[in-house]
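ping. complex inputs:
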Amino acid sequence: MTFEVILQLFDSSLRLATPFLLACLAGLFSERAGIFDIGLEGKMLAGAFCAAAMAAISGSAWIGLMAGMGISVLLSALHGLASITLRGNQLISGVAINFLASGLTVLVGQNLFRLGGQTPQLKGNARFSEITLPFADTLRDVPLIGPVYHDLISGHNILVYIGLAAVPLTWWVLFRTRFGLRLRAVGENPGAVDTAGVSVVRLRYEAVILCGILCGIAGAYLSLGTSAAGFVREMSAGKGFIALAALIFAKWQPLNALYACLLFGFLEAIGTKYQNVDVWGLFILPVQFMQALPYILTVVILAGFVGKAIPPKAGGQPYVKEE
Amino acid sequence: MNEQAHGWIRLIIIPLINLVLAFFVSGLVVLMIGENPFRALQILLTGALGSSYGIGYTLYYATSFTFTGLAVAIAFHASLFNIGGEGQAGVAGIGVAVVCLSVVGNTHWVLVFPLAICGAGLAGAAWAAIPAYLQATRGSHVVITTIMFNFIASALLVYLLVNVLKVEGSMSPESRKFGETARLPFMHDIMGGIGIPLARTPLNLSFLLALVCTVLTWVLIWRTRLGYEIRAFGQSESAAVYAGISPVRITMAAMLLSGGMAGMMALNTVMGEANRLVLDAVQGAGFVGIAVALIGRSHPVGVLLAAILFGMLYQGGAELAFEMPAISREMIVVIQALVILFTGALENLVRFPVEGLLRRFERRAR
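pong. complex structure:
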């Protein structure tokens, strides 16, 4: 393996990790506030579709991004209505949202564009194009740092950088602001938050809306920021669940989420580049094993044999105010 | 207003209103697409029930959904949400295939069927075993682990079909055909044999097995000691523990039974219809089971009726997509989502106001 190949692998890992990362941070806000969200997948898919549809109609990727965030927030609000206001089962609500997105995207897409559920190919400003960071070309020939900066760090679209910036931002919001403190408290002990005179319902709604916004960006990345250049049916392809896995893997910590998503992105990058991996001539790891590895790792982590993952204490339980 | 009437309202009326709401919103979606919802409903009903062909397909789908619905229902009674029916049924398909591929020559299906039932049940239960064990002893949330196991199962299935079971020289990831004598008899063959002509459909003997399993599930839940323990555990874990019921044992038992039941559906698709192992033998039936169990209120009879309802949706929906090209097959997924949403997640949308109303009536009666 040459330096160039490794750089290439890392580069595609970063690209593949971005949707995981955005969706994972989305789930982090929601679950930290005590609202389980297995509907990340559906929100991402709906976001990807609306982003591509609006970008195709308006010709602007930014309007597309707004639309993607909009639909995702709408679905989040529905999840909030079901699980916060109506105190329904959060898991069932998530399942419903996944199916709703899976069906409606194709149904509406087929009616709008008549392309078998796809959107038209997006070109020019309707996509997020790659950004060359300052000095990337001038520094290119500097040994080691040059290629790393030019090939790995520079040359991604804006959403990749938004995803990376969201990590410290999430950390700061959660651990350095009053809002974040309350948000974490509401996921651990909503009764205490309520006693302190802070509205549990309002905080939880704020958390799921934040989740919706980030999921929408993740979806828009899929359709506007990758080589797909448009919406393809079922294009989220389980990425929302990998994000969920990464969230558990990261033990609900923002910085760990970055590492977990990069790891899962790396596994996918290896899987797509090499298909079957020959391990020192001893045995061959089939590509399907690489695809299943994130899920296997998550189960191992959940089992608690290697550092137990403990979810927020009040997660999944609707809050009933004492009368 | 007495207690019994309350029970009826809770058990029948509220779910029915929820279901009507779900279909009402589905009608709005059809309207939004620019088609007439009443004509769509008419096409759907005729497609599903208007001919022996339609009914055959409806019941064929309903067979799969009954198994997966019962699977979700059994786990629900223990207050466990088994979202892994899809993976369990997929792995059960491997179990069925192993049995059917290893029997020699012209073994008659009467001999193969019991073995295949064991194969499907054991494989399905085995796939539920690890999530069940982790839930019972390590507290790992069974919903998350079963989701993960769905993905692992699909990777395993692809691997086996591409690398192990694929027929040499063939491009499609399928196993070789099972022996023709081992194939489960079709209903049209059975009924034709006694002089009742039916259209050719994939409806097969496993439909009867689904009916038997419905009865057995009822017996299990309401007429056995284990069923009582499962329900007690589902109602209140701490009370069950106080009564000497072991949470580990009940969690394992409920999940293994659930996985085994989900596995039964592989008999319908793998041994009944395709007569070989194909990649998409489950086709989302594992997830339909969630909707079916929710509508059926986890009662075996309710599950059976809900499974037939979804069978109608699948068969009628296919006809609908043919007659009204604007309404593609994804409409079924949307209806399914709305049903899960209204009867599951938004259940209280109807229940809160109805119960408030009941309370007001009671006060006035006093």
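The longest strand of chain A covers residues 277-279.
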